[in-house]
Write a structure and sequence with these properties.
Layout lengths: L3 E4 L2 E4 L4 E7 L8 E7 L6 E7 L4 E3 L8 E5 L5 E6 L8 E8 L4 E4 L3 E6 L1
Parallel strand pairs: 2-11
Antiparallel strand pairs: 1-3, 3-8, 4-5, 4-9, 5-6, 7-8, 9-10, 9-11
Length: about 120
């Protein structure tokens, strides 16, 4: 069983930056992709970044493209989400997830990000 633990959330003013971390309890040999999601009060969960662990390719929705960067450690046990030019609408609980091409199997407990105007 893989456990994911997020950290790095906090409060920041609009325009600021944060870096979230997601640590896996063990090497995720059966994982092909790592993702970051977010959910704010009253809204559905939203995907914000994905990294394909084999080739390091990444993708983002338009809402964060050019501002967020997902990356991983060489040992593939830690994934990061660098968030720049933060906006109040980025306020949410952020979750990391790990899985293969069909679904995400493992989820973290989340870390809160609050952006004030």
């Amino acid at each position: 069983q893989v456990q994911l633990v997020e950290s790095g959330g906090g409060s920041v003013q609009a325009g600021g930056s944060l870096r979230l971390s997601c640590a896996a309890s063990t090497y995720t040999y059966n994982v092909d992709r790592m993702g970051w999601f977010r959910q704010s009060t009253g809204k559905e969960r939203e995907w914000v970044a994905v990294l394909y662990t084999g080739g390091d390719s990444t993708d983002y929705p338009d809402s964060v493209k050019g501002r967020f960067i997902i990356s991983q450690d060489n040992d593939k046990k830690k994934v990061y989400l660098r968030m720049n030019s933060l906006k109040p609408e980025d306020t949410a609980m952020y979750y990391c997830a790990a899985g293969d091409s069909t679904q995400y199997y493992y989820w973290g407990q989340g870390t809160q990000v609050t952006v004030s105007s």
